[in-house]
Write a structure and sequence with these properties.
- The chain is of the alpha/beta class.
- It folds into four domains: about 120 residues, Rossmann fold; about 180 residues, P-loop containing nucleotide triphosphate hydrolases (Rossmann fold, 3-Layer(aba) Sandwich), CATH 3.40.50.300; about 70 residues, Helicase, Ruva Protein, domain 3 (Orthogonal Bundle), CATH 1.10.8.60; about 70 residues, Arc Repressor Mutant, subunit A (Orthogonal Bundle), CATH 1.10.10.
- The chain is built from 20 helices and 16 strands.
- Strand 15 and strand 16 form a beta hairpin.
- The longest helix is centred in the middle third of the chain and has 19 residues.
Length: about 450
């Protein structure tokens, strides 16, 4: 796992943060003074540093500044009990990935640490590019071999150098950011910055400052920091209506000035937005502006959930194993066929992120260079039994299976019983169920052929 440095002069909070990070499997160095923190920073050059704003002998912003100057690959999370928009903007401007305001939940800390470790610095990203598994189009870094992923890759190839705004819609954790990064890496902007702003992670004042600037930010915005590159605005569905209006005007200005060949450097970006909720539904409820929707959805891309692309589970797991192996220096364990079946049979409500966490856990428990079912999280291996008494058969569905999957299973059982009642006549069964013959065959998973249309 990662090497983490924590600097906080409050012993109780320092110990809690250190314990929480160690529980995640990380190697942690915890110190209470800025002087010791700088020594530890020089000695270990950590993957991630968590630093308090007000330390007894030093200002946390000075440590962030020093870290950015000497160790730009170290991700930084600032912690403060005196949170303010100005302080947060300054910390992020200096290079901090995110900030937490005391008191905070340990779950928030763990989530922020995980995101920070997944977020490469711009310099490192340009040098490294995206690690790829044995899949498709190496230039994009997309991972998957399902028809749906291949379709997305084809779209990326077609629109790579098109500056029209792109809207990515899909469930949390389905891989929208990877699609955005792949689009950036495949474009002629690939050597310029790729910047991400998560709307749900910031209070409204800071979000406004990041998007449109403020006196404290000296006019710097995420657009100016991404000049020549790409801006991804994540979870745009939570953007307050007031800021939606300002963003609508800003994007209109970018579009107008681009058409007039009068686009200043700080506005020369490709704009991508992502949403975990269908924006059309939010428009109908009045919580999202229709005019903004049409501006950001010139090119819409639907990112499917992991449960609908089972073919991608194995290559994604292989990618995470390879990624972890590169990070730890240990050889990657193999996944035995029984564990593989369980991975492919689980519905993954947390999508790609949940799969990655499951692989991390399995690696921690694996023995003999092999991942077995016992190494997987309990919710992946536990199943619910659905028994059909008449058929004397039992169907097993993993805990976490989506309601739609359960309903489909029950539908098949009910259709089978209706067919029995009607002596096997599919026409009579379809009429009794109030569906067409074609629908009956589709729900039974059968192909509709003319010779099967006859009544028994």
């Amino acid at each position: 796992m990662a090497n983490i440095l924590i600097i906080d002069d409050e012993a109780a909070i320092l110990n809690l943060m250190a314990k929480s990070c160690r529980q995640q499997g990380h190697d942690v160095t915890a110190v209470q003074t800025g002087r010791d923190g700088l020594k530890a920073l020089d000695a270990s050059q950590p993957d991630l540093m968590i630093v308090d704003l007000l330390i007894g002998d030093m200002n946390g912003l000075d440590i962030i500044r020093y870290s950015e100057e000497h160790y730009p690959k170290t991700q930084v999370i600032m912690v403060t009990g005196n949170g303010s928009v100005e302080t947060a903007v300054e910390a992020m401007r200096l290079g901090a990935f995110d900030y937490l305001t005391k008191p905070f939940e340990l779950a928030d800390l763990q989530r922020t640490v995980q995101l920070g470790l997944q977020e490469p610095s711009d310099k490192a990203e340009i040098a490294r590019g995206f690690q790829t598994a044995a899949i498709t189009m190496p230039s994009t870094g997309m991972i998957g071999e399902s028809p749906k992923v291949k379709e997305i890759l084809e779209v990326i190839e077609k629109i790579a150098d098109n500056d029209s705004p792109v809207l990515l819609e899909g469930e949390f954790g389905s891989g929208k950011q990877m699609v955005a990064r792949s689009l950036h890496n495949a474009s002629n902007r690939k050597d310029a910055p790729f910047k991400v702003l998560q709307c749900s992670a910031l209070p409204e004042e800071l979000l406004e400052s990041e998007l449109f600037g403020s006196p404290s930010s000296r006019g710097e915005t995420i657009f100016s920091r991404a000049a020549g590159g790409t801006v991804l605005l994540e979870e745009i569905h939570v953007l307050p209506l007031r800021l939606q209006s300002k963003l609508d005007s800003y994007l209109e200005e970018i579009n107008t000035r681009r058409m007039m060949s009068d686009l200043p450097r700080h506005m020369d970006v490709r704009f991508i937005a992502s949403s975990a909720k269908p924006l059309q539904e939010l428009i109908e409820s009045g919580s999202f502006r229709e005019d903004l929707f049409y501006k950001i959805s010139i090119i819409p891309i639907e990112v499917p959930p992991l449960r609908s692309r089972i073919e991608d589970i194995e290559p994604l797991a292989a990618h995470f194993l390879k990624q972890r192996s590169g990070r730890t220096g240990n050889s990657a364990p193999e996944i035995d066929k029984y564990a593989k079946r369980l991975l492919e049979g689980y519905s993954w409500p947390g999508n790609v992120g949940e799969l990655q966490n499951a692989i991390e856990r399995a690696c921690a428990f694996a023995e003999g260079g092999r991942i077995r079912p016992v190494d997987l999280p309990p919710k992946v291996t536990q199943k619910v039994e659905i028994t059909d008494e008449d058929e004397k058969t039992t169907h097993h569905l993993p805990v976490g299976t989506g309601l739609s999957d359960y309903v489909r299973k029950q539908e098949k059982l009910f259709i089978r019983e209706t067919l029995k009642y009607n002596g096997g006549s599919r026409e009579k069964a379809a009429s009794m169920l109030g569906v067409s013959i074609a629908t009956l065959y589709r729900k039974m998973g059968l192909k509709l052929e003319k010779d099967k249309m006859t009544t028994r």
